[in-house]
Amino acid sequence: MSSPADLPVETTPLLEVTDLVKDFPIRSKGAIRRTVGMVQAVNGVSLHINRGETLGLVGESGSGKSTIARCILRLIQPTSGSVRFKGQELAGLSRRQLQAMRRNMQIVYQDPMASLDPRMTVSAIISEPLRIHRTTGDIGARVGELLELVGLRPEHGNRYPHEFSGGQRQRIGIARALALEPDLLILDEPVSALDVSIQAGVLNLLEDLQRQLGLTYLFVAHDLSVVRHISDRVAVMYLGRIVETGTGPEVYETPAHPYTQALLSAVPIPDPKLEKRRRRIVLEGDAPNPASPPSGCRFRTRCWKAESICTEYDPELLDLGIGHPVACHFPTPDDLMGSEQG
Amino acid sequence: MADVPVGILAGTPSQTEARSQWQLVLRRFLAHRLAVAAGVVLVAAYLFSYLAEPLTGWGYKDLSPDLSQGPSGDHWFGTDTIGHDMFAQSMRGLRVSVHVSVVVAAIATVMGSVLGAVQGWFRGRVDGALGLLVDFLLILPLLPVLMVLGTRTRASGGSSLMFVAVIIGLFLWAPLARVVRGEVFSIREKEYIEAAEALGASNTRIIFRHLIPNVMSSIIVYATLTVATAILLETALAFLGFGIQPPEVSLGSLVDEGRDAARTRWWLFYLPGAVLVVLVLCVNFMGDGLRDALDPRREQRR
Predict the structure, then answer these.
(1) What is the rounded CA–CA span in Å between residue B222 and residue B227?
(2) Where are the alpha helices (DSSP H) in chain B?
(3) Which residue of chain B comes nearest to A191, CA vs CA?
(4) C-alpha distances out from residue A83 to A71, A77, A251, A320, B258, Å
(5) Residues 6+ away with beta carbon under 8 Å from B119
(6) Beta strands A105-108 and A88-89, pairing class
(7) Does A199 contact B at CB distance below 8 Å?
(8) Which of B190, B198, B300 is closest, CB to CB, to A114?
(9) At a CB cut-off of 8 Å and minimum separation 6, what does A214 contact?
(10) Is residue A27 within a helix (H) or strand (E), and if so which, with residue range?
(11) Contact A168 B6 (CB under 8 A)
């Protein structure tokens, strides 16, 4: 997409995360704050993103997807594991080295109102990264350029975030993230807080920008249909683990993990006949408490396929003849539409 | 594009003119009638205090042969027991009180907001150490301490006025630091602070560009309170014979001297007192206006 395939550089992924773990301590109340437990927000996650592609990271609330995003940017310190960006290990970088790295990785947040400083004008917000990294050139002109790039008008720079609609605010957030021309953009549920009618506009903008600027996206979302629209590859998370990963068609058309199947069966189909015919999987109960995850497979408490092996052994994320890696003892590629589809 | 068309918010051409942030603040401040009126009164009174002597012919140190007289055409605010023109004294006192309180408020506000923000941002040991200092200053009985330090002003003479102001300022920042620290603790969890970190912003930048501007309304409210506190504290010091020494006067010392005469020669107490009240009120009204002007979100509610 962004660079010709004959470049040898492309063999190393732009971002490579290996065995990432993040535990949050639970502390008791009172003067002496003992650590009484650990919430395992992220438990041994590995993923990679190649230059120019989009990885969709999907999971329900509390599955650890935003924690991964923040660990990659080192906004929170991972407990263990490695994050490599362009082959360079980010763990253990000094504050200054980290600042330099942040030029190349930016984040767009879920709630654009919360992530834009209400005291700053839009120009000040968008020019802040330029000032921090002391870029040369006309900052004012660059801000105008960026505003136009995301579909706003340069005159809007003199206003405050609260004067804009949700979709426009998200565009401001995107403009800020793009100011330094980063290689990797982490999109942390960038459209979840927006009205459905406006989501499409922002998603199209993101796709256009990717094509124009050769961006690489890590797209975090809880909505499978949104991710399907934009992702090249998808990783499904459950309780701090990736349970299934593969290309868009692999995951969406032949989901093999029961959790993925359940998620996909909940996505409405805009065809009443198909919608009636297809199988619905309704999961029972809530996700278990991440402070005390179940033994063995983390999904077994809600899985209809669970057997005794699931209690004892934690399935690894492996390709067991499905065509893509699945963390399940009984993976069966499931055609949710039933046999009638073919 | 499914988004709101960009033209909708653009409005009339006059609204889309380039305006700096401070022009906007000024515009919002000017829309606040009471604050503008208070500001005008404050500035006018301050400038007028310089005109008092040429207008009435009396300086604040001058002694007239008219002793203990009520207000008249010659002595607008009357005279005291030894023949001081009370109008000249009140105007001089106004000026001194304004100078002292502005210096005090400036020192206390800058120290309080910066140190409070530093506490809230760095937490941990920095917070602990500064918190100890804040606690110490808060429990310290201010008046006795200032009296002890005030004895030095008598010895040094000369620049005692600013010395008093600086000393009071160094003791008044602690309450503001505590307020700012508390607010920073809540603001630091906001996503736009994390966003600034993700951009690579330094601690200094986060503190001065993001944290302090976002607690500005509290800081300004507190600064105006500090001005009032400073005037009253200086009053108490003057009353006890420390700080400002005769023949220098401040509104505080005038009110205190006139206190005993409140029933008999009312002008000695009520007229400087009225100037003091008007001064403090004007400062507070201006503070209200500034707070509203500095908070962009307030504009919508009007």
Answers:
(1) 9
(2) 21-30, 33-56, 86-122, 124-139, 142-156, 160-187, 191-199, 203-205, 212-214, 216-239, 251-258, 266-294
(3) B3
(4) 8, 11, 25, 27, 75
(5) B126, B127, B130, B131, B134, B177, B181, B184
(6) unpaired
(7) yes
(8) B190
(9) A1, A2, A3, A51, A52
(10) strand A15-27
(11) yes
- HSE of A195 in the Cβ direction (CA atoms, 13 Å)? 10
Helices B21-30 and B266-294, packing angle to 10 deg? 130
Interface test with B, best of A95, A106, A122, A128 (most B CBs within 10 A): A128
- Number of neighbouring beta carbons within 10 Å of residue A340: 9
- Cβ of residue B213 closer than 8 Å to a chain A Cβ: yes
| Closest CB from B2, B7, B214 relative to A200 | B2
The H-or-E segment that residue A275 falls in is: helix A272-277
Sequence-separated (6 or more) residues with CB below 8 Å from residue B141: none
Q: Hey, how many other C-beta atoms are within 10 angstroms of the C-beta on B165?
A: 24
CA distances from A277 to A198, A225, A228, A258, A336 (A): 31, 19, 22, 19, 10
Determine, for residues B9 and A168 on separate chains, whether the beta-carbon distance falls below 8 Å: yes
- Mark residue B97 as left, alpha or beta (left: phi above 0; alpha: psi -120 to 50; beta: remaining): alpha
Q: Write out the DSSP string of B105-157.
A: HHHHHHHHHHHHHHHHHH-HHHHHHHHHHHHHHHHS-HHHHHHHHHHHHHHH-
Per-residue pLDDT of chain B (302 residues; tens, 9 = 90+): 444 444 444 443 334 344 556 777 788 888 888 889 998 998 998 998 888 778 777 778 777 777 777 777 777 787 877 778 888 888 888 888 888 888 999 999 999 999 999 999 998 889 999 999 999 998 888 888 877 776 665 555 545 677 778 888 888 999 999 999 999 999 998 889 999 988 888 899 999 999 998 888 888 878 888 887 888 788 777 767 676 777 778 887 788 778 787 778 888 888 888 888 888 888 888 888 887 887 766 554 44
Sheet containing A88-89: order of strands? A35-49, A15-27, A80-85, A88-89
Judge whether B227 and B102 are in contact, CB under 8 Å. Answer: yes
3-class DSSP assignment, residue A46: strand
Q: In the structure encoding, which two tokens stand for residue A320, read together?
A: 């067991």
Q: Under 8 Å CB-to-CB from A89, ≥6 apart: which residues?
A: A82, A83
A121 near B CB under 8 A: yes
How far does the CA of residue B237 sit from the closest CA of chain A (Å)? 40
Chain B residue whose CA is closest to A75: B198
CA–CA separation, B91 and B250 (whole Å): 9
Question: CB-based burial of residue A153 (10 Å sphere; 0-12 exposed, 13-18 middle, 19+ buried)?
Answer: middle
| A254 alpha-carbon distance from chain centroid | 21
Q: What is the 3-state secondary structure (H, E, C) of B171-194?
A: HHHHHHHHHHHHHHHHHCCCHHHH
* Burial (CB count within 10 angstroms: exposed 0-12, middle 13-18, buried 19+), residue B213: middle
Reduced to 3 states, what is the DSSP secondary structure of residue B4? coil
